[in-house]
Amino acid sequence: MAEVKSTQTTSVAAGTKLLPHESAGLRKSFYARFVNGASTLAVGDTIYLGDLPKGVRISKDWLANCGTGTASSTLDIGLRTKSTGTVIDADGIAASVNTAAAGYKDANTGALIAAGAEYVTADVAEVYATVTGAVFAASQALTVEGTYVSN
User: Fold this and answer.
1) What is the CATH number of the domain that holds 94?
2) Which residue did the predictor score with more confidence, 104 or 8?
3) Cα separations in angstroms, 64 against 50, 53, 61, 75, 77
4) DSSP secondary structure letters along 51-68
5) Which of these, 120, 128, 126, lies nearest to 149 by C-alpha position?
6) Quick check: is 8 in a domain?
7) Would the pTM count as exceeding 0.85?
């Protein structure tokens, strides 16, 4: 049987040093909590959740945990550059996370990290959520957590 090499073993065989996000990096946690005010957030409103450092690889273990929301309410979780506010991918971490029903939801379905993709931040990146589907309920709580690998 034939054997092929991973990207990392190919690099090592060529004498290239692996970057920290590829090998021997530190797994760190991202955590954000948001409790909505007395009014609803409209479709298209955003929630700034926090920052990821430059040069980190986003892991595929992100979760959203929320209280009960309005029927059909969802959130996208994406990234934008810290320095310019330019959107990298509006649903790059997660697309259409169900926020209508209370509980933990997978938040790792975005194009930047799903289906074998990997994403390494080229600059400091802001993590933000966009209200989609229907309004975000008044007084609804949300936590978003996941990990990333850095040096």
Assistant:
1) 2.60.120
2) 104
3) 14, 20, 10, 9, 10
4) EE-TT-EEPS--EEEE--
5) 120
6) no
7) yes
